[in-house]
Amino acid sequence: MKTNINGLFERMANTVTNWTGSSVAFLTAFAVVLIWAVTGPVFHFSETWQLVINTGTTIVTFLMVFIIQKSQNKESKAIQLKLNELIAASRLASNRMVDIEDLTEDELNVLHKFYKKLSDESEKDVDIHNSHSIDAADDLQEEKNRAQTENRKAD
């Protein structure tokens, strides 16, 4: 039963999202607002007349939030899967980046700072073919650590 409801909601969300993003939907909404505005004098711009548009737009907005979020979640997941496939297919890319969308905001901020630093370093390179990946940076850091350890032993 749950699968049927999810499938029905997904099909409905796709249909509504596609329709509401169309020119016809915009023109329909514009026509509703125009008709409402034109009927103002007929209803003497009463509170009920104002309440009609306020209630209608509130209900539509409330429902659209869920529809739009469902569509964005699906698109985001599809993009993440495509990116994961590209990372997995590239022998030079770090597989550690697969599935990072499950990290906390703080962990993502740490990665962002790291990539900002890599970007800054790559701008200094004359050769644009140099690799600046997490793995390359880790290898370089390990070399530095080994050199420091050897220097301490030598002292």
Keywords:
155 residues, 5 helices, elongated
DSSP strand count = 0
Secondary structure category: mainly alpha
Termini distance?
72 Å
State the helical fraction: over 70%
- Mean pLDDT score, rounded? 85
Total number of domains: 2
Strand content: under 5%
Largest sheet: none
User: Uncertain spans, ≥5 residues at pLDDT below 50?
Assistant: none
Overall 3D form: elongated
Write the H/E string, N to C: HHHHH
State Rg: 27 Å
> Number of DSSP helices?
5
Pfam family, one: Iron_permease
Transmembrane segments: 21-43, 49-68
InterPro entries: Iron_permease_Fet4
Biased composition (Basic and acidic residues): 120-132, 142-155
Q: Can you offer a commentary on this structure?
A:
This is Low affinity Fe/Cu permease. Keywords: Membrane, Transmembrane, Transmembrane helix. The chain crosses the membrane at residues 21-43, 49-68. Residues 120-155 are annotated as: Disordered. Helices cover 77% and strands 0% of the residues. Helix 1 (2-20) crosses helix 3. The chain is elongated and about 95 Å long. It has five helices and no strands. The chain has two domains: 1-101, no CATH class; 103-155, no CATH class. By secondary structure, the chain is mostly helical. The mean pLDDT is 85.
Give a quick summary of the entry.
This protein has 155 residues and is mainly alpha-helical. It has helices spanning 2-20, 23-38, 47-89, 105-124, 134-154.
Write the layout of secondary structure elements.
Blueprint: H1 2-20, H2 23-38, H3 47-89, H4 105-124, H5 134-154
Helix pairs in contact: 1-3
